[in-house]
Every structure is written in C-alpha cells, then in structure tokens.
Give the backbone structure.
Amino acid sequence: MAVLCPTLGDPDAAPALPSAFQIRSAKPGDVPMLMVLKQKMLIEEGVPTGLQGTVLDWLLQGFGPTPSYTAHVAEHDGQVIGIVIFNERRIAGWTRPSIYVQDLYVEPEHRRRGLGRALLAGVAGAARDRGAAYVELNVRDENPARQLYHRTGFEMVPHCLVYVLGGQALLDFANSAAELLMLAGM
Ligand SMILES: CC(C)(COP(=O)(O)OP(=O)(O)OC[C@H]1O[C@@H](n2cnc3c(N)ncnc32)[C@H](O)[C@@H]1OP(=O)(O)O)[C@@H](O)C(=O)NCCC(=O)NCCS
C-alpha cells in the first residue's frame, strides 16, 4: 500500500521540510528503524521500562508465520520518519476484530504536516479491509495527540479507565488464585 500525502500548510513557512511523504507497509528491513522510533517515543513519553525485545524478536513477531503486529511507516527520501504499529484484537463471540493502535510516532521536525493523520488513515484503511468493528487506542490525558484523535473521528469511551495487573502484584494474585483453586478442588 502506498499513499501520497502532500505537505499541509504554507510551504514557504517551512522551506526545510520535504514537499511529499510516502506511507507504506513496513518491510523486514524496516525493523531497526521501527525499534529506533519506538525507543524515541518511549523516551519522549517518559516510559521507564524502555524498549523490549531484540531485532530477531521484532522480526519474528512482525514478519513470521503468525504475525502479532502490523506496522506502517512514513518515509521521505528513503528515510523512515514516522511509524504506526497496530494489531488485531479478537473478542469472544464477535465475528469482527478490533484494531488496536499500539504506537504512533513522527519525528519532531516533521510534525504538524499531516503525517500523524496519514498514518492513522492507513490504519483505518487496514481496519476497513479486515472488516474490523473499530480502531482503538490508549492515550495519556495530557497528550496533545488527543486533538489529532478527535479531529480524525475517534471518540473517548466514557467512564472507561485502563487497568493493568503486573509485576509482583500479578505474581502475588496469581499465587493466591492457585491456592483458591486448590481449595475449590480444581
Ligand atoms: C502525535 C503525533 C504522532 C502527531 O503527528 P503529526 O504528524 O504532528 O500529526 P498531524 O500533523 O497529522 O496532526 C497534527 C494535529 O494533531 C494535533 N496535534 C498533534 N500534536 C500536537 C501538539 N504537540 N500540540 C498541539 N496539537 C497537536 C493538532 O490538532 C494538529 O493539527 P494542526 O497541526 O492543524 O493544529 C506526533 O506529535 C508524535 O509523534 N508525538 C509523540 C508521540 C505520541 O505522543 N504518540 C501518540 C501516543 S498515544
């Protein structure tokens, strides 16, 4: 897939910026740049855990026999300058998947030119082609990307907070559950 995305706004206002970008599906050779840009995103968002996995992990997960993610890249002059990574979520009983956007990142010097919107449009196209019920994502409440999501038609799910169970709390609860199940004779 390739979508040409003309530069938005007044070209004279930003002469150093390129006049056109290409959005395309990622290839195995893009994995190192997917990792670099995801790492930059994590640093920008202050995520303490950092990037997970080796190049081989990313290759197998994205391009192996049963891929667990799909990626599109934004490119200019052969340089990858933006990424979006997403995956299908299957819900019991549903005949249609949802598409979950894991990561969206554009290099700072190329922002506010329509690339984020174009990358999301590519995800919407993939969702439509896969017969998905909707596209979903999580975002921190202070992230200005929320404006982009509202402007592209995303709606906030009311009264819905994201919870995770991890680390020692996960182990503690899993162990207590095992004891409970044994007590119940399971
Ligand atoms: C979010 C992100 C991908 C947007 O990329 P982009 O190429 O600038 O997006 P677009 O140019 O298509 O859309 C920009 C629109 O989004 C909103 N927006 C995005 N970033 C914004 C910012 N820093 N401040 C204000 N509005 C912003 C505005 O509505 C803007 O429209 P405008 O330029 O006409 O005012 C980019 O800012 C980024 O990589 N941020 C860091 C990573 C991140 O937060 N990812 C999302 C995690 S949920």
In short: The longest helix spans residues 167-183. The pocket of coenzyme A is lined by residues 41, 44, 104-106, 111-117, 139, 143-145, 147-148, 151 (CB under 6 Å).
